[in-house]
Specification:
Chain B: GO terms for molecular function: metallopeptidase activity. Chain B: This is TldE-like protein. The complex is a heterodimer of chains A (473) and B (440). Chain A has 473 residues and is α+β, with helices and mostly antiparallel strands. Chain A is built from ten helices and 24 strands. Chain A has two domains: 197 residues, PmbA/TldD superfamily (PmbA/TldD fold, 2-Layer Sandwich); 239 residues, no CATH class. Helix content of chain A is 23%, strand content 38%. In chain A, helix 1 runs parallel beside helix 2 and helix 3 runs parallel beside helix 5. Chain A starts with a helix and ends with a strand. Chain B is built from ten helices and 20 strands. In chain B, the strands form two sheets. In chain B, strands 7, 8, 9, 10, 11, 12, 13, 14, 15, 16, 17, 18, 19 and 20 form a 14-stranded mixed β-sheet that branches. Classes of the chains: A alpha+beta (473), B alpha+beta (440). Chains A and B meet through strand 1, strand 2, strand 3, helix 2 and helix 3 of A and strand 1, strand 2, strand 3, helix 2 and helix 4 of B.
Chain lengths: 473, 440
């Protein structure tokens, strides 16, 4: 396959491309679903192809094929060149890429328990284990949707500026939707996922059945003991899971440079952040947000991005100050910077665009007890269901699934659906203390058209927000 | 590609598989993305793939084959079989449809002019210019052209072919940071394509939305533009699948035969709609697509089904396979008898929402959700529009359906990034919709 990607790039340069890159991707894996105790079927994943991206006269063209012959790739290159030339005529300024240092590298994530050696039957046992453990709680869970998924992701990236990156990244995950029906009431834990880059041992060690049991027990307790949350100005402690979704939505997304410059305007929207806001205060001193693709075994793991640039941690907010945007080569050039390796594509048939990887609220120095000890009246939001944010990433809402009242420094009874509806600036300015321990939660980050759902981790430490106008349903 | 299909079917039967479905695709798709009045990237996809579904003693499995050599086909089938042998059967699997079937050509689903269209950038420029003429400063969007061929062969006697085309555009126009509008146009034949209408609508709404004030919260009568209501119906379409109901993702669970919407609400899935963006001649098991009434005058009539789920519930397939998961083709909310002006004059004090995005559910079975209006939002006061911003629709899908008070005669077919399943809907007036906003 190495020859075919090299051929694509050389062929594109011969046809007049100013820049060319070819990306081969192959994905092999298994997915299994269990619905209400019944196996729904096995899916074998096998997909491969080549995507070619070129710049000609400042216009960008992309074409892909899954017919892996020299003739088909040559035809694909020809189409990309033609599209780029035509696109260049409807541009005000030519697209240019930043200068980068490129490498020839091959890397792989090791699996202690290689999922390719494990039968679907044994993988189905993982789902059965979740079923059995949930049933053993005695909680009535009439609807149970559980899914297992693994995939070996092989990529070869080659470009005309000298990058040659080959990678093998295995990914494993389980996802569940559990509906608890007790006492005539119904609560739900939908699309809860546990996910890693690595072997099956990571899922086994993580014990997703324990998360499922915790969820259904918390929902049952909520049904029997849940009360209305306090309303009006209270203190709010958010868990690493809630901090994770908040940093993802209101820090990661608005700091994507393609969004800042309007390229995503028709789909995922623009941003309240403008290029001249670098150095501006957006949160309190204790807020630092990092996006780091290099965390070992993380769901959003990579060492080189899909433009061949070496990855590193990106400090989006440092002590409350906006310090860095997420960039690819196109927008790094616009900003007069180097790329910080945020270009990702979900498959060979998608262009690399600016994406997050593993975004988290960096730890502070508070224990959990210290965070709650002086709260007279507040709420501890452990997990969330409904969430959304406007397309400038400013006005957002998160509704608690598992949540508790905090009274005089103590965790009390569960509260039903406390609603945090707040602006980005108010959210991060309200944080006065951050916990010591960081946890991560997986997700699929949506962006691009056609959609590119990329694997990401979101997380951080616990955080305490003061004087928050909490709402009730 | 029928030769490939037949080879796969023959080899699958030799290996001892029971039900076999081979669905081959040849796809040519072109995209032009634009932003800031210029093209950001142009793309082309060419794909050949075979979607394969097999059953072995009530064990079911699927895969996609892209490398179509005889050797790879044989290897794939053997891999599937060896993996399935150790698995537990799916006890509620009841087979696929018995063919053969007869198919009728559906008007306005194929146009040679789209296949032969050399250069679509002219349409992009026309849409951008239409938006700029209405007062927009920045225009962004996407244009697609599609040409698909599908070949279906099943172990139950189906051999079917369909060929379709499409062209569509989605345009978002901006004036400042807070003033924007959106328009779309999706058709299957070139002569009906009207990119200017999408650009013009986007530009008009952006111009009307100048200098918006912070919006209110409370309960309001809301007029949803077709673009906005299509989003809610597109999300709802998944919930009409029997699979979604079994898996706990539907507010329609246990509601067959019950009132779930206002009397004036009739919602259909129309798989054979002329010029519909989701139209196909047959479903994934070869059953000819048709019109299925999901909600009739407010009463929930049926989930969308494939053959196996239909047999499980003692009824007939609705031709919506999805072999694992039935799904809608084109959702249609039947229009009403109001003109647009009459609908707006019904509202003495309310809100007009032109578009929404990021619809998310708190609880799928109860239907609690919120969604965020984007682009122009307007207070409607005695027929006058006053632009507002920063509000959220926070309500319940059942409540929304039950509170529909009026529908226009004018209906629009909507398909774009946020409306995955195509939807045809009029302007919709809904009473007492929950509106919230951030207060800090």
């Amino acid at each position: 396959m190495h020859e075919l990607v090299e051929f694509a790039v050389e062929n594109a340069l011969e046809l007049g491309a100013d820049y060319a890159e070819a990306r081969f991707e192959e994905k092999n894996g298994t997915s299994l679903t269990m619905k209400n105790g019944s196996p729904e079927g096995l899916e074998i994943l096998a997909d491969k192809g080549i995507g070619v991206r070129v710049l000609v006269n400042g216009g960008m063209g992309f074409a892909s094929t899954n017919v892996l012959t020299k003739e088909s790739v040559a035809e694909t290159v020809k189409k990309a060149i033609k599209l780029a030339k035509a696109a260049s005529r409807v541009r005000n300024e030519p697209i240019r890429f930043s200068e980068e240092n490129f490498h020839r590298v091959s890397y792989k994530v090791k699996m202690r328990k290689d999922f390719r050696d494990v039968s679907p039957e044994e993988k189905l046992e993982l789902l059965k284990k979740i079923e059995e453990e949930v049933k053993a709680t005695g909680v009535n869970v009439p609807m149970r949707f559980i899914r297992y998924y693994d995939q070996m992701w092989h990529k070869i990236i080659f470009n005309s500026d000298g990058a040659f990156i080959e990678s093998f990244i295995p990914r494993v995950s389980t996802t569940y939707n559990l509906v608890v029906f007790e006492n005539g009431q119904m609560e739900q834990a939908p699309f809860v996922q546990r996910a890693f880059s690595g072997g099956l041992e990571l899922i086994e060690k993580d014990e997703p059945w324990k998360w499922a049991v915790k969820d259904v027990q918390a929902l049952k307790k909520l049904i029997y003991e849940g009360k209305r949350p306090p309303e009006g100005k209270v203190d709010l402690v958010i868990s690493p899971e809630v901090a994770g979704i908040a940093v993802h939505e209101s820090v990661g997304h608005p700091y994507e440079s393609d969004r800042i410059f309007g390229r995503e305007a028709a789909q995922a929207g623009e941003s309240f952040v403008k290029p001249d806001m670098l150095g501006e205060r957006i949160g309190s001193e204790v807020v630092t947000v990092i996006d780091d693709p290099t965390i070992p075994n993380s769901w959003g793991f990579y060492l080189y991005d899909d433009e061949g640039v070496k990855a590193r941690p990106r400090y989006l907010i440092r002590n409350g100050i906006i310090t860095e945007f997420l960039t690819n080569r196109e927008y790094a050039h616009k900003l007069g910077q180097h790329s910080n390796a945020a270009a990702r594509a979900i498959n060979y048939n998608r262009e690399p665009i600016v994406r997050m990887a593993n975004t988290y609220l960096a730890p502070g120095d508070y224990s959990f007890e210290e965070l709650i000890e002086d709260i007279k009246l507040g709420v501890y939001m452990v997990s969330f269901n409904e969430w959304n944010i406007d397309d400038r990433r400013y006005q957002q809402r998160y509704i608690g699934r598992e949540a508790y009242l905090i009274e005089n420094g103590e965790i009390k009874h569960p509260v039903r659906r406390p609603i945090l509806e707040i602006t980005t600036r108010a959210l991060w300015s309200s944080v006065d203390a951050v916990g010591k321990e960081v946890e991560f939660y997986p997700g699929t980050c949506g962006k691009g058209e056609p959609g590119q759902g990329v694997p990401v981790w979101m997380g951080g430490a616990h955080a305490r927000l003061r004087d928050i106008p909490l709402r009730r349903p | 590609m029928f030769d490939v299909n037949e080879l796969i079917l023959k080899k699958a039967k030799e290996l001892g598989f029971g039900d076999v479905v081979v669905l081959s695709h040849e796809m040519n798709r072109r995209q032009v993305r634009f932003a800031n009045n210029e093209i950001t990237v142009a793309k082309n996809w060419h794909e050949r793939k075979v979607e394969l579904f097999v059953e072995f003693e009530k064990r079911i499995a699927g895969t996609t084959i892209t490398e179509l050599s005889e050797e790879n086909i044989e290897r794939t089938l053997k891999t599937l079989l060896s993996n399935m042998k150790g698995m537990a059967p799916k006890e509620d699997y009841y087979g696929i449809a018995e063919g053969p079937f007869e198919y009728k050509d559906i008007p306005e689903t194929f146009d040679k002019a789209i296949v032969e269209l050399d250069e679509p950038n002219e349409y992009v420029e026309r849409a951008i210019n239409a938006a700029l003429e209405e007062g927009a400063k920045r225009v962004a969007g996407v244009l697609y052209t599609d040409h698909d061929r599908i070949y279906l062969t099943t172990s139950n006697g189906v051999e079917a072919f369909d060929e379709g085309t499409g062209i569509e555009i989605s345009v978002r126009a901006f004036i400042g940071d807070l003033e924007s509008g959106h328009g779309t146009n999706s058709v299957r034949v070139l002569k009906k394509f009207d990119p200017e209408s999408a650009g013009r609508k986007a530009g008009e709404i952006a111009s009307l939305a100048r200098n918006p004030e912070q919006g209110p919260e409370g309960r309001f009568n809301v007029i949803f533009d077709p673009l906005a209501f299509a989003n809610l119906l597109s999300y709802m379409s998944f919930m009409t699948s029997a699979y979604a109901a079994e898996a706990g993702f539907s507010f329609l669970v246990n509601k067959l035969g019950q009132k779930v919407a206002s009397e004036i609400v009739t919602i259909k899935d129309v798989g054979n709609m002329p010029n519909g963006y989701g139209t196909r001649k047959f479903d994934d098991e070869g059953v000819p697509t048709r019109e299925t009434t999901i909600i009739e005058n407010g009463t929930f009539k049926t989930f969308l089904l494939n053959t196996s789920l239909a047999r499980k519930y003692g009824t007939e397939t609705t031709a919506n396979a999805g072999l694992i998961m039935p799904h809608a083709w084109n959702i249609v909310l039947e229009p009403g008898d109001y003109s647009r002006d009459e609908l707006f004059s019904e509202v003495r004090c309310g809100i007009y929402i032109t578009n929404v995005w990021y619809t998310r559910f708190q609880n799928y079975v109860t239907g609690d959700f919120s969604t965020i209006p984007r682009d122009g939002i307007f207070l409607v006061e005695n027929g006058e529009l006053r632009p507002i911003r920063n509000i959220r629709v926070s309500d319940n899908l059942q409540h929304i359906l039950k509170s529909i008070a009026a529908l226009t005669k004018e209906s629009h077919h909507v398909h774009w990034w946020e409306v995955n399943t195509p939807v045809s809907t009029p302007y919709v007036l809904v009473k007492d919709v929950g509106i919230t906003r951030a207060t800090k």
